[in-house]
Structures are given as structure tokens and as C-alpha cells.
Amino acid sequence: MAKSSVSRREFMKGAAVAGGGVLLAGCASEPAAQEAVAESAPMVAMTAEEILTPLGLMPGSPDHAKGWTTELPDVPEGMPLNPPVTITSFTRTDADTRFQGDDDIYDNISLRYIKALFGIEYDIPWTYVQGDERDQKMNLAMAAGDIPDLMPGIGLAMFQDMVAGDLVADITDVYEATAHPKWVKESQEWGDHQLWAYAEVDGRKMAFPSIAQAGQDEQILFIRTDWLDKVGMDAPTTLEEMEAVAEAFVTNDLGAGPPGSTVGVMASRDLQSWYGGLGPVFGGFGVLPSWYTSVSTFTKDGQGGLKFDGIDPAMKDALTLVRRWYEKKILSPDFFTKGYQENRTEVEGNRVGMNYTHPWGGVVAGAIGSMANDPEATWDWFDVPAGPVRKGKNYFSPLRTGVFPFRKGSENIDKILMQANFEAEIVLSPQRRYHGFEGHNYDWVEGEDRVVPQSGGTHGYGIINTRGGANISPTSNMNNIQWKLNYKETVPRGEWDAMMELLLDDPTGLQTMQDEGWLFLAEHSLEDTIRNEWNAAPTELQKEKWTQLQTLTDETYFAIITGQVPMDAFDEYVTTWLAQGGEEVLAEINEWWAAK
Amino acid sequence: MQALSPVIDDLKEQASRFVRYLPRLWPLYVMVIPALIHLVLLSYYPMYGIRIAFQDYKPALGFDKSPWVGLKQFQLMLENPSFWQIFRNTIVIATSKIVTLQFCAVILALLLNEVRKLFYKRSVQSLVYLPYFLSWIVLGGIMLEMLGSSGVVNQLLQLWGVEQPVIFLGNNRTFVPALVLSHLWQQVGWATILYLAALTSIDPQLLEAAAIDGAGRFQRVLYIILPGILPTLLLVLCLDFGLLFNAAGFDQVLNLYNPAVYSTGDILDTWIYREGLLGARFSLATAVGLVRSVLGLILIVISLRLIARFTDYQLY
């Protein structure tokens, strides 16, 4: 295996050279004057390559026979800052966050790259795994009066409170002056300015918006096609056919677990989950359950107002079907105890026949592991089967509820935006060939002109491309896929470099499956989805009532599905839901809708 | 003023005694200082936060800017349709756990006491202590696997002819027994320690005399051993009773419950967690926590009185 060109020793050498320079500057007679000059602008503008190459931090692999060159954008004017500025922020880390060598979350190649290129040092006082943990730590930080400069993914209710508490910087002016007109401003005007719905307060920009990819968490149906062959059936196009296929999987006990443990259709304790959620089953009845979200789902009622699908009569029909599936053991008998990790284990352990999920989930968190454990296993994705009312699933708005506010008083907001400009240009320009760092994101196979992906990868800091962070445009991933397909068609196979071979040859077909799934979702997103029309911060009444109403909904639905109460319990639930404050919340939502 | 004079005299007497003994006892007072600082910093100073229960507190606004709402949070708590059910669940789960645990711990201690092979006795003790040292994060995962539809328990039941898997953690009829039994499994070994210690305090001559008089093993247990450990059992029961609201076990319930069993498994602490931390209603959560603490204090006072009455132990 080829040794990484960004070795620790080389980095240390580079750092020593840079550090020696700083030390010598420190020994000079008039340090203050020199610093002032350096802060205003570098004496000679350097390219990113000139800055990064001596430090071994340049992405790309131009020195290999089948290597490629990454073309980075121009370094923002005045950068790298000297001396560097420190920006406090927090970041997400979990089991998928891995690093190569001695790198860790606080000292890794991304941080070194950012510091070298922009003169920005990120100080990470704390990390989080899930959003509720982040909220708890943020609440503690606010109570202690110690909030970071940049706060990624803050929920709407908290953001609203922070604005009311005067803790958040108004970034309108600095955004207008600093954000790149094409790569940032133009991208964020997608959908007639709707991406700013949460981040703007009274017409002022109070945060950087958080944007997802179009169709990012929408679902398609992944099916074990080898199981379809075994039972001699076609992929289902209706929920009725889906039930028959699932029954056949379960009856023939095709799963790899103990006898009787085959799961026909994956289900999650979060019925609306992006992984194993039954949203498209409910969608087939024209309704969507609303689940574990502070901004709940309210859809058009056909009479000019909004309704809560959770109490719609069609929901009772949908629950009747799910209850029947549970009785028939099509669903796991204890699915309500299982979330993403548990369900992924089931899929990869080859116990599951069908799974509603996103192409990424179906391939990366499903088919790859499943096929590794059983080379006979084959998967493919299909459009969601239609229900008795329609073909429907949750529309995933690229407008995310978590925004990126900045601490009021922070002096470096413009620097963070300058870094964002640079990174946005990379994200939106696949032809620049940014594939990360050798030895971190990929590695060369020793003795061969071939690269393999690394499990570690890199970790983003700042706004763009961070874990759980903001994408710059809802269409960037689509553009990237289209560019790859275009490359495949226009560049002769013999001229491909090693990275393009890795991305396009795709011997297992899984990458292509994932790409095609993405494109399908993006193309059909609007026609097959049910839209949540409520996109505002939760009101005081909602905050007061919603947890209790949601508990009531959860409890009733699961009791119905598992057969602990009769179907008529749904009617009683509707009455109780309305009486316990749901009616008032609905009235408030409709007032907002009418005013809109 | 005359009514107060005995109190003042008493205080004067105490003060003069303190001054008299200080030269001799000052090292002891110095040694108490760290504990006092700990107590003040971590127990008394945080009580400042109780004011949150009377505010509509928002961390972003802080204590000073959050508006005062009087007793509104307590009113909301009592009006919440789930509150009394959750309160009842807490009492039922906690009481079931306490009674089952202490009963089984006494039985286990008596059984262990009868074992004569030391190696066997020590091995059993070590094995039953072991689960106590695992947290509920770990045990929760183990329990979910073991009690799952294709877990080891259901596989055993299948071998014994039970065709349908039992959904222990998804059914309101089986959830609380599953909680109580898994708690028992984790705690029973540890709980026997006290009783084993109490058993050693029983005079062996009594047992020998009883045996000479013709008392069988069961009679010796019934008339000598059980009365001998009764004060310990009462002490433990009273202490547990005082901590009733903790005994339901937040970490265990949080790791094992799910929406299908809210009606029997949701307890005050999990409700506070959902409403307060996840729902960001800190004032309501603090109000419930305050009520819980006040009730806990009352129970502790009652339990201490009961302890004083039924045993020789008196705290104050």
C-alpha cells in the first residue's frame, strides 16, 4: 500500500518551518508593526496549492501514474490570517466518525488544512452524537453564558429563544458584504428565497440557513431481489401486492436468523423514520404520521385550511393495514423497540426482505453489509407501491429546521463566511476534482494504479459539508451525479484516472444503484409526495401541548398496531387529542395559514 | 421573652461547650470542611435553580429575563391528563421492585447461609453480584436482545412448546414484571450483602441450643434467624420507602420502555426527561421535580420515624 503523502512527519516538518518563521518574526525588533501588515493582507498573494503543498496538505494525487489534480479556488483575499483567529464551535461525532493515524476530532487533517489555508483555528469545547444531546449542551452553555461563536444545526424553538434573548448576531450586513454572489447568495435563493424561511427574523438574516439535498430523506423501496426469485414473484406496485410478497418471504422463512425470525417489511419505532419508517404505507392512504419533531406535519385539508393527518379518518384505515401486517408477522414482533442501528443490523444480517429507505440507506447502510455477509444476496430499489388512495410518501423539504446562528459579539463571522465561499465553490464545481486527501479519504493499492476508499475520511468544520451541517445548495449532489454520468459518456474509458475508475467502474453495481435512486427521487419528488405546509417555529401553545399530544398519539398507534386495544380506540383517541389541546393548536395553525 | 430564655440558655451552653472543646477537637472540624463545601456547592447552591419552577424559564433569557408565572407550572402539571397515571406507575413500579428485591434477597441470603462448601458459596456470591456492576446502558441492550422476539428467552419458550413469541417489552401486561425481574437480576446479589452480614451477628449458641432442643432447620430459620435479621430488613425497607421516587429507576425504564407501554411504564422521571429536556419545558420539569422532592422529603421523615420505632437505630 502506498504511503500517505500527508504523513505526520512531513506535516511536522512543514509546521516546524512555519513555526520557525513565526519564531523569527517574534524575535524581530518591531513585531507589532509586522503583525499589523500581515493581518491586513499577505505580502504576496499565494495560491492554495502553493500554501498547502509544502505542508503536505494538498488534496488530490497528481504524482501517481493514474493520479489526478485537484484545482482549488483562489484563496480568499487577506487569507491565510496571520496570526490565525480562533473560532469556537461544536461538532457532531458518532460511530461513523473515524480518523486515520493519530488524528482525532480535535486535531486532524481537516483542521490543519483549514488553518493553513484560511488562518482559522477551530476550538471545539464539546461534541454531540444526537440532536437532543446537542440541545442539552447548548442549554447548559447558554445558562453558563458561554456560547460558541458558531452554532451548527440549532433547532427552531431554541433559535427563537436565542433571538429573543439577544444572543444571536444579525448577519445581514456581513452576509451582504462577504457572501459570494454566485456560489453562496445565488445558491441560497433556490426556491424563491424559501431556504431563508427559518433563518430570517423580521426580514433580517439572523443565521445561516441549513439546507439538505433535494429528496435527501425521501424513501424508495429496497427489496431482496434474490428472495423475489425464490418465491417466484415480481416487485410489488401496490400495497396489496407488497403484503403478498412479504407474506411469501415470511412463510418461506428466507431470513438468516433463528427459525421464524424473517422480517417481511422493516419497521421502525419512529414510524416516519428515513430508515425503515412506514411513511409510504401511510402515504398510500393519503396521510402522514407526524413523529418526534418539534415542527409537526400539517397538510392541506382540501378546503383551504390545514389538517393534522394523525387524526384523519384515513389514518384509521392505514393503521388497520399496519395492524394486519403485524398480526401476520410481516413486521418484526418488537419493531417498536428498534431504531436505525438495530434495524440496520437486521438488514445487514440478512433477516429483512423489504426496507423503505433513502438510496444512501439502502446501499451504504444495507446492501453493502448484507452482500458482504451473504454473497448470494442481491438488492434493488423500486418505486414505492401505491395504496388504495394514491402513491404517497413524505416530501423532504431541503429547508432544514436546524439553522447556523453566530454568537452576538463574535468578531470573526466574516472569516467563517469567507471559508464558506471557498468551500461552496468546491462543492458546486465537480470538475475541480476534490476527492479529499490521500491516506485519509482514499489510498493507493501498493503496486497497482488503483485507489480504494478509506473508512476514515475527513471531518468538516465551519458551515459547509460538516457532519449534520448545511449543504450550500439542494441540487449540488444531483449536479455531482450528473457530472459523473457525463464524464462516463464523454471521456474514453482508457483515459480515466484511478478515482474515476473507482467511482464509475462499480463492479458491484451498488454505486450506480445509489446514484440512480437519488436521481429518481429528485425527478419524482414533487409528484409522489405529501407536503408538510407548516414551516414556522413552534408557537408557545404548541410547545406547551405538543409533547403530551405526541405521547398520546404514539401510545395509541402502537397499542392499535400491536393489537392491545381494538381499532375503535382510534375514534376515542381523536376525541381525546382534540380535547387535550389539539383543537386549539389546529386553530392556531390555521390562523397562521390564513394569514400566509 | 421568658418563653425564649430556656432556648437561649441552651444555645449559650452549647456555645460554651463548643469553645471549651475546640482546642481539642479542631482537627475534626477542619476535616469536615471539605464535606461541608461539597454539600453547599453541590446540594444547597443548586437550589437557587428552584426558582425556575415559578418562571417560564428559557436558557437563552437566563434567570433574570425569564418571566415569573407564579404557580402556573404546578397547575399545568396537575391538569396534564397523563400526570396521575404516571404518578401511579411510579408508585407501582417502585413498590414492586422494593418488595420483590428485599424478599428475594432475604431468601437468597438464607440459602447462601446454609451452604457449607465455601468455594461453592463464594462462586455463587460472585456470580450474583456481577450484574450489579453493569450500567443500564449495557444491561438495557442485553435485555432488549434477550427479551426480543427472537431472543434467547423466546427461543427457550419455543423449545418448551410456546408457539407465539412473548413480546415482553411491548405489552402492558408483561412490561412491569419484566422491569421488576430484570431489576431483581441486577440487584439481588448486592442486596444480600447486608443480610449476610446481619446473619453473622446471630449468636451461634442460640442455633446450637435450638438444634439440641430438637428444632429442625426450618424452625431454626423461622424462630431464630428471621427474627435476628428482622431489624436489618425493616431498616432497609424503611430507607427504600424514603427513596420511593428514586426506586422506580429512571435509567432502567428509559432504556427499556417504548410508546407501546407508556400506559404502564412511563414514570415521573422519564416524563420529566421527555417534557423537560426533549420538549425544552424546563419550568414544568422543575415544578414536577420539586413536587417529587418535597414528597420524597416527607417520605424520608416518615421512614426515619418508622425506623426509630421498629429498630434501635435513630438518626436524630
Main attributes of the structure:
heterodimer; A: 596 residues; alpha/beta; D-Maltodextrin-Binding Protein, domain 2; 4-stranded mixed sheet; 20 helices; globular; disordered N terminus; B: 316 residues; mainly alpha; 2 domains; 74% helix; 0% strand; flat
Give your account of this protein's structure.
The complex is a heterodimer of chains A (596) and B (316). By secondary structure, chain A is of the alpha/beta class. Chain A folds into 2 domains: 8-207 and 405-478, D-Maltodextrin-Binding Protein, domain 2, CATH 3.40.190; 220-394 and 529-595, D-Maltodextrin-Binding Protein, domain 2, CATH 3.40.190. Chain A is 42% helix and 8% strand. In chain A, the strands form 7 sheets. In chain A, strands 8-11-7-12 form a 4-stranded mixed β-sheet. In chain A, a hairpin with a 6-residue loop joins β14 (442-444) and β15 (451-453). In chain A, α14 runs antiparallel to α18. The longest helix of chain A is centred in the C-terminal third of the chain and has 27 residues, at 569-595. Chain A is globular, with a radius of gyration of 26 Å. The model of chain A is unreliable at 1-42 (pLDDT under 50). Chain B has 316 residues and is mostly helical. Chain B folds into 2 domains: 5-54; 80-310, MetI-like fold (Orthogonal Bundle). Chain B contains 15 helices and no strands. Chain B has helices at 5-44, 62-65, 72-79, 83-114, 118-129, 136-147, 152-159, 172-200, 204-212, 217-242, 244-247, 250-256, 262-265, 268-278, 282-310. In chain B, α4 (83-114) crosses α8. Chain B is flat and about 65 Å long. At the A-B interface, α5, α6 and α19 of A face α14 of B.
